[in-house]
TrEMBL record:
Lineage: Archaea, Methanobacteriati, Methanobacteriota, Stenosarchaea group, Halobacteria
Protein's name according to its UniProt entry: cytidine deaminase
Family matches, as InterPro entries: APOBEC/CMP_deaminase_Zn-bd, CMP_dCMP_dom, Cyt/Deoxycyt_deaminase, Cyt_deam_tetra, Cytidine_deaminase-like
PROSITE patterns with a match to the protein in the record: CYT_DCMP_DEAMINASES_1, CYT_DCMP_DEAMINASES_2
CMP/dCMP-type deaminase domain location: 1-125
NCBIfam families (alphabetical): cyt_deam_tetra, PRK05578.1
Gene name tied to this protein: cdd
Length: 129
């Protein structure tokens, strides 16, 4: 688990955050152990900004991965940041409710399950697919 948090910490150094100065890094582990990282990339039009978790998911899916077991996130503030609602919904598309989400608090970590962070999420099942 420490390695995954360290990968998220490393990824946040690549963040492009000229407006908020709030760096976030994410490290997503696929079921086969492959790790994909992402960082937030801000845009002056905030709605076009990319979140670290989204970038990690996008890289993983592009590489053909669809099963994940653990995600670590770390912010420059080391404040225990959790994925935002939009990122939670993106994760639900590809991850089970039992995905472990590890949040870097600077002096330790907190762990959550995706299903606890986003209960009753919109899914293929709720859409009748």
């Amino acid at each position: 688990m420490e390695d995954l948090v360290e990968r998220a910490q490393s990824a946040r150094t690549d963040a492009h955050v000229p407006y908020s100065e709030y760096r976030v890094g994410a490290a997503l582990r696929a079921a086969d152990g492959t790790v994909f990282t992402g960082c937030n990339i801000e845009n002056a039009n905030y709605s076009n900004s990319l979140h670290a978790e989204e970038l990690a998911v996008g890289k993983a899916v592009e590489a053909g991965h669809r099963e994940f077991d653990r995600l670590a996130v770390s912010s420059s503030e080391r404040d225990g940041v959790t994925p935002c609602g939009m990122c939670r919904q993106t994760l639900v598309e590809f991850c089970d409710d039992d995905l472990v989400v590890v949040c870097d608090e600077g002096d330790g970590t907190s762990e959550y399950r995706l299903g606890d962070l986003l209960p009753d999420a919109i899914s293929a099942e709720t859409l009748g697919k």
